[in-house]
Design brief:
The chain has helices at residues 6-37, 66-73, 88-97, 126-132, 243-259, 291-313, 334-339, 358-361, 388-395, 412-415, 484-499; strands at residues 40-46, 76-82, 136-142, 160-162, 165-168, 189-193, 205-206, 209-210, 215-218, 221-224, 227-229, 232-235, 265-270, 320-326, 362-368, 377-379, 383-384, 425-429, 435-439, 442-445, 465-468. The chain contains 11 helices and 21 strands. Helix 2 crosses helix 6 and helix 5 (243-259) packs parallel to helix 6. The strands form 5 sheets. Strands 1, 2, 3, 6, 7, 8, 13, 14, 15, 16 and 17 form an 11-stranded mixed sheet that branches. Strands 18-19-20-21 form a 4-stranded antiparallel sheet, with helices on one face. The chain folds into 2 domains: 38-425, 3-Layer(aba) Sandwich (Alkaline Phosphatase, subunit A); 435-499, Arylsulfatase, C-terminal domain. With 507 residues, the protein is α/β, with parallel strands linked by helices.
């Protein structure tokens, strides 16, 4: 074997180093290019927005929503999308974890403003997934999944509940970050309110810490339909009517900063509207034919438009996935329908927010990503918002950890137009804890009535409900007694799914 002497090595070494350096630079450039191909994601979650509130889903809607119509024209709209629950806390839990909320400690209802954290710190979330894939992660908006406040005296609970009274907050250390919250669940940055905008405490928390203390007493109001909030405590600077626009401003600041970085960003933007209190800005008053509520929806549309325009101005639109949806159906009651007879906030569907019927959990869903998602398409697949965990995992080329997202189904192949499987079934859950399961054309409800706020029709004697959703989307004819074999099959499937996850874990 020939051995090179020192002079030969010295003659060729600089050239070899140059070649190696060139290969390294090319590899780095390729890696950065691959990273830049990963889309930014802006996930906008409206609060209590109905399927029928948007013109693009309901041509007869009496609310102008031009920005959301534009989003749908440039992306894909889903006509059979559902939340896992008909109220906000459990549906938000499912979005972030890919797990039905009835598997958690919350079996019915929603959390309060001082409730402890519902998601355990070691539970894998969509934010964890995004971080694992190299994303910057942020949440700006309404949290409503509980937090563990830090006590002043560690030997005592931070919050002492008092029957029929505001909790005793004297042992909360409002000057320290909360012990459990968004920043312990995968979010690099958080700017939130604790719960709904009609629940105390009325305070912004940045990275888990109140931005303005001490809290002072805050009076509630119930002056007209929808203009309602509970009394309690608030920071002195908190302006309840400014919250929606304040969050959009914060989101804009974040997008400008994160969009200039080499890493993609994931922004979860859960809005506070059009949930009560209905407080549209002055420029939106009398903008709709659906009263104060409709005006507030028009304000929401404008808020989304501001985000879309910002993405355009920063040249981020082409490689940013925008997801827009709602956490449950609209709080639109029979009296509202009578007052504004031309507007159906929950479209033709039976029921409203809180109910097990379609109006409680069928929601608008729009996805736009010009680089990958076909524009102007309508998707009729049955989709659950819990499916974003597995869908994002596929999009990001990530394998979910064992046990993560057990109820999440990967829809990414179908979203980008490559075919693939669809869900065979999904579970729904009402505010009172009533279950339903959907499989193909059939929807079985394990109980009587709405399971929520809507009054039930006269009792037909059946202990449960069965509807042919393909032929009877309004759920008017209960077929429970006519198809006992179908009832038996779906009841057994429901019990099986309660015990075992119903997703595909991103496979």
């Amino acid at each position: 074997m020939a051995i090179l002497n020192a002079s030969v090595i010295n003659r060729y070494l600089p050239g070899r180093v140059l070649v190696l350096a060139l290969f390294w630079c090319l590899a780095q450039t390729a890696a950065q290019g691959q990273q830049q191909l990963a889309p930014n994601i802006v996930f906008i979650l409206a609060d209590d927005l109905g399927y029928g509130d948007l013109k693009v889903f309901n041509p007869d809607a009496r609310i102008p929503t031009p920005h959301l119509s534009r989003l749908a024209e440039q992306g894909m709209m889903f006509r059979d999308a559902h939340t896992s629950s008909s109220v906000c806390t459990p549906s938000r839990y499912s979005i972030l974890t890919g797990r039905y909320a009835f598997r958690s400690s919350l079996k019915k209802g929603v959390l309060g403003g001082y409730s402890p954290a519902l998601i355990e710190d070691d539970r894998f979330t969509i934010a964890d997934l995004a971080k694992k894939a190299g994303y910057q992660t942020a949440i700006i908006g309404k949290w409503h999944l509980g937090m563990n406040w830090k006590p002043v005296d560690p030997a005592q609970p931070a919050i002492r509940n008092r029957p029929k009274a505001e909790p005793d907050l004297s042992n909360i250390d409002f000057n320290s970050p909360v012990r459990s919250g968004p920043n312990t669940l995968g979010f690099d940055y958080s700017y939130i309110i604790p719960a709904s905008l009609d629940m105390s405490p009325y305070v912004y928390l940045e990275n888990g810490k109140c931005i303005d203390t001490p809290l002072v007493p805050f009076e509630g109001t119930n002056t007209e339909r929808g203009v309602f909030w509970r009394g309690g405590y608030a920071s002195k600077s908190f302006k309840i009517a400014n919250t929606l626009d304040h969050f959009i401003d914060k989101a804009g600041t974040y997008i400008r900063q994160a969009g200039s970085a080499r890493k993609p960003f994931f922004l979860y933007l859960p809005l506070t509207a059009p949930h009560t209190p209905w407080l549209p800005a002055d420029g939106f008053r009398n903008r709709s034919g659906a009263g104060t509520y409709g005006d507030f929806v028009a304000h929401v549309d404008d808020a989304v438009g501001r985000i879309l325009q910002l993405l355009d101005s920063l040249n981020l639109t082409g490689n940013t996935m925008v997801v827009f949806t709602s956490d449950n159906g609209a709080d639109w009651k029979q009296k509202d329908k009578e007052t504004y007879p031309g507007h159906q906030a929950n479209y033709i569907f039976r029921g409203e927010k809180s109910d097990i019927w379609e109006g409680g959990h069928r929601v608008p869903l729009i996805i736009r990503w010009p680089a990958q998602v076909p524009k102007g398409q309508t998707n009729a697949d049955p989709v659950c918002l819990a499916d974003f965990m597995a869908t994002f995992a596929a999009l990001m080329h990530q394998q979910l950890p064992e046990g993560a997202g057990p109820d999440s189904f990967n829809y990414w192949p179908r979203i980008k137009g490559a075919g693939g499987r669809i869900r065979t079934d999904m579970i729904h859950h009402s505010i009172n804890g009533m279950f339903a399961i959907r499989k193909g054309r059939w929807k079985f409800i394990d109980g009587k009535g709405s399971g929520g706020w809507s009054p039930a029709n006269p009792d037909d004697g059946a202990p449960g409900q069965l509807y042919n959703i393909e032929k009877d989307i309004r759920e008017t004819t209960n077929l429970y007694s006519q198809y006992p074999d179908v009832v038996k099959e779906l009841r057994a499937l429901l019990e099986q799914r309660k015990a075992v996850g119903s997703g595909d874990s991103g496979k």
